[in-house]
Amino acid sequence: MYKRQVVRMLIVGVAAADDACRTGSALRRLADRALERLSSRHPDRCLVLASTLEDSACRLLVRRALERVGGALFLLCPRPLPETLASQPDEQSRLDLLDLTARAERRIGLRGERGVKEWYERRVEIVLLIGQGTAPRLPRKQARLDPQAGVLDWNFEY
What we know:
Layout: E1 8-14, H1 25-41, E2 45-51, H2 56-68, E3 72-77, H3 81-86, H4 91-103, E4 106-109, H5 112-123, E5 126-130, E6 141-146, E7 151-154
Parallel strand pairs: 1-2, 1-5, 2-3, 3-4, 5-6
Antiparallel strand pairs: 6-7
Helix pairs in contact: 1-2, 2-4
């Protein structure tokens, strides 16, 4: 017999990584720490990552969430998918993007980068920033994953 229940979502935005950020073991370790902390802090909520998946660092973080903590993906689409695919640097990146696109729970069409910003303001509770780039103003709860410095920095306390 199956039990049905309503599970609240914890929507976590994954901001685009800065250009200097590279994927690798340092980013994987930081991603795992951040995801484990979010999952342990919110055991009663489903972790949902919202991302455009436009860069490899974002895709790595989303993949870790799907595979390690049972997270879900809301794919934010500020432009048509063929344009996002065409902007990828190589065939492996395009295949990675397509694989994660197929695993998305929802695909949300938005009107450009402004649409992404507005969606973040309305829906995202926490944003994960990758690298050393400039942080968006909203939401106020943010965690920065800086693989170059090996630092996971939260701007709020639990």
